[in-house]
Amino acid sequence: MSPQHQSSQSGPADHTAQRRRDFFGRMRDGLLGAGLATLLDADLLSQTDTAANPPRTSDLGAQTPHFNGRAKSVIQFFMTGGPSQVDLFDPKPALNKHEGELPQGFIDNVESVGAAGGLLPSPFQFAQHGKSGLPFSELLPHLATCADDIAVIRSMWTSSFNHETGIMMMHSGRPIKASPSLGAWVTYGLGSENQNLPAYVALDDPVHNPILLGKQNWQSGFLPPIYQGTRLRSIGSPLVNLKAQQPLPATILNFSRDLLKRMAREHQTRRPGRPELAARIASYELAARMQLTATDAMDLADETADTQRDYGLDQAVTESYGRRCLLARRLVERGVRIVQIYMNTGNGDNPWDHHGDVEGNLRRSCMQTDQPVAALIKDLKQRSLLDSTLLVWGGEFGRLPLAQKAGKPGRDHGANGFSVWLAGGGIKGGTTYGETDDFGYHAVDNRVSVHDFHATLLHCLGLDHRRLVFNHHGLDERLSGVEPARVIQELLL
Amino acid sequence: MRWIQFFGLKNSLYCGMRTATVRSCELTRYLPTLALLLVAVPAPGQQTAPVADTFETAVLPIFNAHCADCHGPESRSGGLHLLTRDDLVRGGQSGAAIRAGNASASMLMRQLERGKMPPEGPPLTPQQLTTIRRWIDAGGRRSGEDAETARQQIAALSISEQEVFVNVFFTNCLDCHGKWKQEAGLDLRTRASLLKGGKSGPGIVPGDPASSLVYQRILADEMPPPKNLFGDQQYVSRVRLQDREALRQWIAAGALPPHPIPRRKDPVLSKERLSHWAFQPPQHPRVPKVKHAQQVRTPIDAFLLAHLEAHGTHFSPPADPLVLLRRAALTLTGLPPALKDTRALLSQPAQHSYETLLDRLLTSPQYGEHQALWWLDGAGYADTHGQINRDELRPFMWRYRDYVVRAFNEDKPYDQFLTEQLAGDELFAWKTDEPLTAKQIDSLVATGFLRTASDATDEGSFNKIINRFGVINEQLEIVTSSIMGLTLECARCHSHKFDPIPQEDYYRFAAIFRPALDPYDWRIPNVVLYPPRYPVPARYSRDLFQPSDRPTPIVERYNAQFETPIVALRNNIAELQEQLKDKALAQRLANLPRLVAHYRFEHSGQEILNAVTGLSEGTQTARLSKDAPRITGVPNRTSLDLAEGGLAVISQRPFLFHRGAASGDATLEFFLKTVSPTDQYGSVFWTASPDIDGDGKPDPAAGAGQIGDQNRFNVDLKTAVKTASLSGDFREVDGTGPHKIIESPRALPKATWVHVAIVRRKLTADSYRFDWYFDGQLDATQSSITSAPFPDSVAWTIGGRPGFPVGILIDEIRMWDGALWASELYRHGAARLVPTTPQVAARLLLALQQPEGERSTDDQRQLRELRNQIDKFDADASIAPLRARIKALEDQKIRDLRIHGLADTGGLPTPVYVFKRGEIQQPGRKVDAGTPVAIHLGLKPFRVAKPTFGQTSGRRLALARWLTQPNHPLTARVIVNRVWQQHFGRGLVDTPGNFGRIGAAPSHPQLLDWLATEFVRNGWSIRQLHKQIMMSTAWRQASQVSELSDADPDNRLLSRFPFRRLTAEAMRDSILSISGQLDPTTLGPPVERSVQPNGEVRHLPGPHGHRRSLYLIRRRKTPNTMLTLFDTPAMVPNCLARTDSTVPTQALQLFNSEFVRTAAARFAERLRTTGNDRDNHIETAYRLAFGRDPTPAERNRDKTALTELTSHWEKQLKRDQDANKHAQLARQRALENYCHILFNTPELIYVD
Predict the structure, then answer these.
(1) Nearest CB neighbour to A174, from listed B22, B238, B1238
(2) What number of other Cβ atoms are within 10 A of residue B862's Cβ?
(3) Residues B761, B873 contacting (CB under 8 angstroms)
(4) Does the model's pTM come out above 0.80?
(5) Is the ipTM of this complex over 0.85?
């Protein structure tokens, strides 16, 4: 159990408090639902209990962070496949000079050795933007207008250059399956601000092929299952069984709910000192509210035409991703703790996995996402939400500066050095951190490991990665692993 | 320019499946240049190192002052001591402490400079750090050594033999030079065999890398052979640059054997740690005397009461008999009490015996089912392998589940239960004993326990050595946590931080399993041996095949469910065929296949004259390529001799299986004769991009590509064979890549002309069937369905591939743009039969349109003959989908029974090394199989005795024998604790998977020991244990919170029975049972899941209703939505204590899901069978759902509610419909609503 979740054992001698402790004690991991503890304290327990020290438990109710972090919520743009750093954020003019050369030392880290070509210069022009002069390639014209809000980390490295383990690593800090994802840890640490929505939401495109690894991207692993992400579908019914397939007529529905509540209350009355029964009853009410709230949160109809246009909902190429970006804002506004936006393509490929024709394919992926992402940054800023919302953009790794031979050249996976960016949530905009070598192959200065990266994200949220621990089979597990990880202070405001 | 050549950049390893951490990339290790640059420039004012610095003069004094407490000869913390320079090089658990000439890459330096060492006391001063750094960078000399000698000595010590063998040979070479094969006579498993070498001479020459064959072949990238870097052996890779370098250094330094590392007692084996209660054998305690003696029914009560009384309280009053009935039924069977039991208790409470009830429940088949659930949680049971992408089925895993169910129902003694699961295959010679008895089969099935870990090594990119270790680690964790209550896993990377478990213990324990779970001799999941498609050696399969095990009644019952739909489909087809016959016949007669090409190979004397007779349409000319085939005169035949690799290009615009054929059907006929009796196999037709112009390169104009391109089309024929056993084995061979090979189903006779016809019939838009005829006879075994696209038009050639001659003569090739009937094919010495000509066809067509009686006898006979053929083939276009459905159903049947279990792979296993820091590339000391050293008190030591029947190592059997000793400190305690947990929600030890020092202390240590020792005394009977617990007052008390609870607020002392929620499975099963939908079938293959359009994963009912949750397939990636919502755990890797959550999505599931809605409707139906009386409905509903009668108040409330609901529905129905059965329907709807509400009430899912 995390330090902030340690329960106060010194209860008053009062009956109710003791029984309640019985309940919380037995709930090994305190698995109460969204805001149930809060609600119980407010509505039910306070009627009989005036104790000054209500027992604490880990649940989905809002938790106190370890310290004050600026960020209250996270939106992660997960770019599955591995975007090419030297074509987007990390200009490498030296590639032009050495075009076609193949440094021997690069070979051990190339997945398809046979297809490895020489150094391939970026086909795209870079220019500096904003007051900070942050360079972006021509593929990101919209994002470039937000240059002064963005901090690019150019020296990320990861341990795996294969998609599955890379994705697991980036999500959970381990290259192994069944590990809790960042979102699960954040939800475990901070709970939810909204009782009627899931605390941790994953948005992918329900129309297209499933994304690589599917729901493992937002799993809770060995953390209790309430911390796992909920996939909300951006079209159609957002949640399984949010509504019945054949809804009951309203009068009958209301009558049924009332009768159920009466039965439940009587059952509870016959069993005094059982807070779990109060929690169960509360969960019925929350479910009913969730039905409305979740539907409402996912309904874009009350967004203005201008807003919809900003996000690119009027164009086929940006519509799908734009819709999810806009939904992410609506969810964050409603207190959802973390939203992950995934991209999937119609053809089953990983959207950023450009082994061939990096010029054409990367352009297409950027076109689908650039405008919506930039619109989200501006929208959050305009609503004064950017400072409390941490934006995270990046894939599971980057790409090699080498050409991959096959028709129009692409680029193979590169894990030794790649770029990600952060914005909002206490991040110092208009900055870059770390450097790769002259070819963008390998991070050389201020290298940032995935654990450093996670530690920094947690820090922005007011969580100390060393203290956010969960005891699993007798071991204190943490997102940032056993070896020391570093919060990158240089990125923080 | 700042550019550093990185080589061998290390992929960081992770330290564990659970303790996993990715270590920061040791950049500096790979940046020697950079590192040297950084340190070689002395800071201003800094002195250059005096050359005279040696370990003894400069470094040892610092160590003696600051480090000797922990790293002296006695303490040796982390396995490291710092007395000599060589100690530093040999290092400890974390590997070498220094690297020659490179302080920045030395672990010692990093630990010191980061201030991590010394952990206490003042850090070293900057001067001291500089001294050590300079000493390392200058070469790390000892007194009396020069720098060069020091470097060599350090290099020789740094590269260990283990490292070379593990990283170079084990990882990449053993498939061809190991246990199973020694290609070129070379075995790379041991130092001796390496030195001995193979056919080409010694593998290495110590001291001389340049003359060392093995090294040179690796250096030249000849080994491992590049072709092995792909395909099934993806884990084989080029030997990394750093490993090549290590190999070179090791050889150069003389290929030294491992340096002896002195064995010392690990400091974690301290007296204090060893005295932990869980490592002491349990003693049978005296039963304490208590004040409330009237509450003592069994000694269990006395132990509990002693604690309660010490806190000034005692047990609660007894629970109501109805409560006890429901509690007992749900606890033991996971189902609510049967209606008749509830009725009996209500009507004649006096005649009700609690003990009889328990006995009945404990011997019901549902007891074993519910108990199995708990055991399978601990065993990490799932029906699929992986969790990465594919998540493939473990098709026979359910047999292990059934084994567990049966074991509980038979009350198999726990020691035997464990022995079978750990070593069932080592109990008898299962490979040779025949036939096996049911008991023997059972004990093989039991080893499924050791095959439960998730495993993605059937996905190529996850079949790396490290992934294999991952699977093994997970499996070991399952074994140790569920049976031994230990977290041995920690010791994988370092000696245990809390328990007396040295790092070696982990590896010694792993070595017990190594003969069966050898990462360097791995069997990937799901290699299918039966039916044979490819000649797969049995050693690659994980399944223990049992030829004597025929389908059991379970399987027959299971298969029977598919029969009804199959019969229906067959009838459907027959009907359809009958309807289609005349239509198809007419169509066929109207569209006779046309002969589109006819090749005869003419000759004139010894010269090639002309190979082709073209037909009227088109210019079907063919040319023979330059040097190729000779025409050889053969009696009666003039033919193309392809024996020497001749290649003939027949046409650029051919038509064989031409898509242009109207129906997609086509026929190819030809005569073949083998010339050489030794040839077994050959490609007869091979179309590729032809070489028309003879320049040796494919002709681009033909549009075809290279080998492997789609535009290839092969027809392979087996030719004459030495043995006669080849026919029938192979049908269609799916070539690698997109091209298709269709292969002859039978071998050709020697030196005899055979007429071969291949008829392609189009089935659907993209699938065809190929029928083969030999001398006019359909080869019944032969039909191939393929969905690969065929090229529109490719040139085709006759002959082998260049360099691959085929010993075949070919003559008289004909092609048709339709499917010929059998009667239309050429036969030896026989003319073609009807219809052959358009005239005949026209006549028959006319005859067909007349009534049967008006046809001539001859026409009638011919039509009948043709009709018969249509019956077989021509209606297929519309019938194919039906046949496909039959096939799909047939595929679901279980044909052969295999066992998904574990057995030794045979031969000598690879040695097991301790991995420094748990990294698989850092092998340290070699260890033997063994059990944790801390657990030894009063025990016979672990001793391996190789079974006399010889096929297995006996290591796991030794483990089982060691574990099941009556006074083992953990075995009995751990299981009685798990059973206790079932009853009371928490174990006496609250951490059932961890009895170590960091686990929870037992709340009632004496009770735990009493239960454990009694359990063994009672013959390890789980059933007895349950009864013992349930006969107690503690179990039979009420669950109400009362003033008695004040002294026991969290109920740790059990002053009341714990109130609790049902498990997800019991909940689902209860709903099914109450609604009368539960299929009581026990055992058998699992129920497949169905993903609903809304994303919900459900398991649909069969003809007899829904199966119990235990029998639902457990797919790791798509678990049942409802069960998951109510906390059925994911197996990561197993679960020893479930959690209860209360979240709104559970309420949504209960309130809105179709599953519960449907159950409510069925519940209502069931109630209506009792008549129309509302009182009756309510009473029966309460008895079924809650196991009690409603109170008068509830009766009234619910009656009113039903009345109101009915009137709501009447109004509603009037609005919606015009029917006049409103009253009836409204009552029905109201009752369904009511039942639905009952399913949502807390009373249903909580137990008092």
Answers:
(1) B22
(2) 20
(3) yes
(4) no
(5) no
